[in-house]
Amino acid sequence: MPKRYSEQVRRKVLAMVETGRPVARVSADLGIAEQTIYNWRRQELIASGRALLTRTELSELLAARQRISELEQELSQLRKPHAPHIRTSHPGSFRVALPWNTVLVSEELARAGYDDA
Question: Could you read off the pLDDT of 35-54 as tens digits, one per residue?
């Protein structure tokens, strides 16, 4: 069964490590396993919000950022000025808007016998 250390001992050990003393030396001086000290440090980083990402988390984050960048570029292409018929009502959506007189002209041409159908 692993040995339990008080919160006070943990804080003192972590303070020693934070001042720059090597974990191996603190471990040897106090008789605490190095891995225990590393675990305490990781737990402290997580609790304080300063946790480091694992390799898996980092690769997932980079992949997500890359995909977001690709989607933003794709969206900016859809909103380019060379396509004035595309209007955005709010970010992330678009709709095709035709001038109101297009329908009227088409109806007039159909009545005049210029209908292609």
Answer: 999 999 988 887 877 777 77
Query: What residue numbers bound the domain in which 77 lies?
Result: 55-111
**Together in a domain, 43 and 62:** no
Tokens of 58: 């980092």
From the number of C-beta atoms within 10 Å of its C-beta (0-12, 13-18, 19+), residue 13 rates as buried
DSSP calls for 54-73: PHHHHHHHHHHHHHHHHHHH
Among 48-52, 60-64, 79-83, the range with the most confident prediction by mean pLDDT is: 60-64
65-74 long-range CB contacts below 8 Å, 24 or more apart? none
Q: How confident is the model at residue 83 (pLDDT cuts 50, 70, 90)?
A: low
Question: Helix, strand or coil for residue 116?
Answer: coil
* Residue 61 forms part of a structural domain: yes
Q: Which residues contact 33 (CB under 8 A, 6 or more apart)?
A: 27
Q: Give the span between the Cα atoms of 75 and 70, in whole angstroms.
A: 9
63 and 94 co-located in one domain: yes
